[in-house]
Amino acid sequence: MSDHEIDASVLIGSLKTEYKTIEAMVKIYCKDHHGSKMLCKECVDFLNYALTKLDRCPYGEEKPTCKLCPIHCYKADYKERSRIIMRYSGPKMLYHHPILAIRHLVAGKKPVPVKPAPNASNRHKRKLNQQ
Ligand SMILES: [Zn+2]
C-alpha cells in the first residue's frame, strides 16, 4: 500500500484476492516494460480502474474470472491493456506468486453464475455497512 495511492482495503474476500493477483501481474509488467521500481503513473491508473471495476462487479464475491465473465465491463482501451499485461505476466505468475496463480487457475474452473444475485456487488455491501 505504501508505494501508490490505491486503497484495496475496500474489497472483501475473493475480490481482494483477485485484486492482489492483478496487482502482482501489473507490477511484473511495469518493472519489465516501464522500468519503474514502483508502479508508473499509467499502471497506477490501470490498477485504480481495475479496483473500481472489482468494487462494482455485479457478481460480487461470486465473480467468475474475467476471462469467463459474460459481462464485458472494461472499456476498449483498458481491455486491451489488460490483455497485454495478462499475456505477459500470466505465465510468470506461477513462478513469482504460485499461490495466487493456483488460486486463479482453480477459480477459472468454477461454473459461471448465470445471473448475478441482486445487490451482490462489493460496492453495494460497502455502502450498506456505512449506514
Ligand atoms: Zn508501468
Notes on the structure:
The protein is mainly α and 131 residues long. The chain has one domain. Helix content is 59%, strand content 0%. It is built from five helices and no strands. The protein has helices spanning 13-33, 41-56, 76-96, 98-107, 122-130. The longest helix is centred in the N-terminal third of the chain and has 21 residues, at 13-33. 24% of the residues are buried. The mean pLDDT is 89. It binds zinc ion. Residues 30, 34, 36, 39-40, 42-43 line the site of zinc ion.
Task: Give the helix level as a range of percent.
Answer: 55-70%
The tally of structural domains comes to: 1
Radius of gyration, CA atoms, in whole angstroms: 15 Å
Which stretches are low in confidence, meaning pLDDT under 50 for 5 or more residues running?
A: none
Short précis:
It holds the Pfam family YgbA_NO. By secondary structure, this protein is mainly alpha-helical. The protein has five helices and no strands.
Key features of this structure:
131 residues, mainly alpha, globular
Describe the protein's topology:
Elements lengths: L12 H21 L7 H16 L19 H21 L1 H10 L14 H9 L1
Helix pairs in contact: 1-2, 1-3, 3-4
The chain binds zinc ion.
